[in-house]
Structure formats: structure tokens, C-alpha cells
Amino acid sequence: MFGHKKERTESNSDLKLLLESMDKVIEGKFDPIDTSAFTDGAVGEKLNNVLDAFRKSNNNFVMRANEAMQSIGDNSYVKNMLDQVESQTVTINEMQESSGNLENSINDITNSIEHIRSSSHNVLQATNDSAEGMRVSAKVVKDSTEEINNINLQIQDFQEKITKISEIIDMVKKVASQSNLLALNASIEAARAGEAGKGFAVVADQVRELSNSTSASADDVVKYVGELQTSIAELAASMDATTKKLEDGNKRVEDSIANINAMESQMNDVTDEVDSIYHAIDKQSAYTKDLSKVIGQITDSYSVLSQDCHDTGEHIYKIGRYIDTLRSDMFRGFSDVTLLDRMKIFSIDHFILTWRVYNNAVGFESLKLTQLNNATGPNACKFGKWAQSVTDTKITSSSQFKDMVQCHNDIHNNASESWKAKDAGNTELAIEYFNKALEAYYRFDESVKRMMDFMRANGEKDMTQIVVFRK
């Protein structure tokens, strides 16, 4: 009877330990239990087997989450999208500025064309007025030429009359000469007649005096007529020269009128062209204003698009953080991944870290410097802790291991420099260090793959086979 009681007591003790262990599992504690506390060690061992099987069954979820984070954590497409939007936004802004400059230029050209148009119309009017004035001048010159020609004709007629007067004076001089000769003969005859011829002699003397006086007067008239002929000849020559100059001037005026008429025709063509250009520029100005308005609308749309892309990137980042947190919790809490699995997790960890550096640089999240590096160096992450804990000299002395450590340190150092640049407000420099960190990650990923090959070559074979869900 006492033996049965002892068995029930031991059974109750094992049941109590089993229930306590299950409570720990419910609390999320999947550490192996101490089987020595059980009266029946097989019970504790079986529970450990269950926990081990559960952890291993979660390996698939952890590694699937790891694979998922390789895609979700890759923000390169978000970066490219934002870079494209930023580049196009810059282009659109430049287009907007250019369209504004173009609109101002078109307005300036329109004002200039309007001024040219007004000037061309004024020039055309002035040309028309000049042409009319030249035509009036030509008529005046022509009329003056005709009047001078009439004066020339009158002068010629006057010269002919003076010539006739000269002929008459010649006749008078001849008559006077003959009268003087007759008077002389009469005086001689009167002298011969003596006393009887005295009265006739007096008459003869008077006739001779009258003849001499007439001859002297005729000489004066001849003198004056000669002077008059000289003056008339000079006047005629001057009138001829004036007539010739007027004819030359008239020809030049006619040539000028022809040139002005040609210029008037050309100015009409120029005015028509200027008017056409003015109307075309006026239409272009309206089109340019519409273009500036449309580009302004595009600029506003791109501002909205840029914000939408930024919000999309931030949303994708948050989804990635949720999944990464789940992956990390499962890895730490209730999984039992293999060493080869750990290598892949180390790679994805730093892939995610690198892109978190980018997220920090563009403002998707705010990291702390201690999340990238601490006082002891880049050894606080899972890889850093593992690398420091490795005691197998075959691994630590390998070139693959040394390459991994160096690339790992480069990632963290460049990530820290990116954080410092962002903290100082220099986003461009922060992106530059991010690119260096990303390049270091790619080298790290290659060194991890070489390390996995090295481990396989040295007998490490276990690796979780990820279950592929059917499509």
C-alpha cells in the first residue's frame, strides 16, 4: 500500500514539473529542461524532444522569413524610384523655370515686335509723305524748267530785237555820216557863192552839227546796246546753266521718286511681314502662357507624386520592419537553425542593416549610432558575437573567415559615417557613405558564400530545406 502511495507521489511530482515546463513554453520559453529533476527521466527527455522538434519545425519559418527579407529588405527599387522622381522633378522644375524664361522672352520679343511694327508703320508713312513731297518737288522743278525755257525764248526774242536796233543804229550812223558829208559839201559851195551863200552856209553848219550830234548819240546807243547784249548773253548763259541744272535735278528727283517708290513697296512688304510676325508672336505668347500653366500643373502633380513615392517607400519599410522583427523573434526565441543557416541569416541581417542606413539617410526612419556601432566596435550584432565566440582555429585561420570579418567591419564603419553625415545635415554625404556600405555588403555576401563552401568541405552539411508553397 505504501509502495503505491510512493508511486503516486513521484507521478504527481513529474506531472507538476511537466505542467511547469509547459507553462514556460506558453510564456514563449523554449529552452531545454533539466531531465534530472524528473523521477522518470524519460518524461523530461520526451518533453525536450518535443521542444527540439518544435524549434526545428520553426526553422523553416525562420528561413522563409529570412528569404522574404532578402526581397522586402531590398529597397533598391524604392531608391531607384525616388531617384527617378527626384531627377524628373529637377527636370520639371528646370522646364518650369525655362518656360517662365521663355514666356518672359516671348513677352520681350512681343514688345520689341510691337515697337518695330509701330516704327515700320511710321517709316512707311514717312516714306509715303517723302514720296508725295518728292512728286510735288518734281512738279515744281518741271514747272520752273518750263518757265526758264520760256524766259530763254523771250531773251532770244529780245536779242533778235536788239540786233535789229543795232542794224537801225548802223543805218542812222550811215545817214549821219552822209549828212555830215553833204553838209561839208554845202559849206564848200556856200563859200564859193560868197555873200549869197552865207545863209546856206549857216544851214549847212547846223546840219553838220546835227549830224555829228546824231553820230555821237548813235555811238552811245551802240555802246549801251553792246553792253546790253553782253549782259543778255551772260543772262542767257546763266539761264542755260540753270536750265541744265534744273533738268539734272529733275532727273535726280525722278530717280529719287523711283527709288522711294521701290522703297515704299519694300516697306509695304516689310510692314506686312512685321504684322505677320507680330500676329504669330502674339499667338506664340498665348501658347507659351498655356504651356507655362500646364508645366506648373505638372510640377504640382510631380510634387504630389514625389510625396506618394516617399510615403510608399516608408510604408514598404514599415512592412519590412514588421517581418524582420518577426524573423528575429523567431530566431532568438523558438528555432534551432544550423550553422549554415546562420551564415545566410548573417548575410540578410547586414543586407537589411545596409538599407536601414539608406532609410535613415532619406528620412524613412531614425537610427541611433549605437545600432550601427558601439564603443567596442561592430561586434554587437549576431555575426559579431558569433565571430568572437568561434574557437575552431580551422575556421578562424581561414581566408574566408578573415574576409568576412573585414567586410563586416567595413559595413558598420561606413554605416556609422553615413549616420554622422546625416546627423550633421549632409544628406548627400550620407548617401555617399551608404553606397560604400552597400558595396562592402556585396563583398561580405560573397565572403559568406565562400565560408559556407568551406564549411561544407569540412563536413558541415545540415541546412534547413525551405518548404515551397504551391502556387
From TrEMBL:
Name of this chain's protein: Methyl-accepting transducer domain-containing protein
The entry's keywords: Transducer
Residues annotated as domain Methyl-accepting transducer: 78-299
Entries under InterPro entries matching the protein: Chemoreceptor_zinc-bind_dom, MCPsignal_dom
Pfam family, one: MCPsignal
Keyword Ligase attached: no
Entry keyword Secreted: no
PANTHER family named in the record: LYSOZYME-LIKE PROTEIN-RELATED, METHYL-ACCEPTING CHEMOTAXIS PROTEIN MCPB
BP term (GO), one: signal transduction
Gene Ontology cellular-component annotations: membrane
Organism per entry: Bacteroides pectinophilus CAG:437
Coiled coil: none
PROSITE patterns in the record: CHEMOTAXIS_TRANSDUC_2
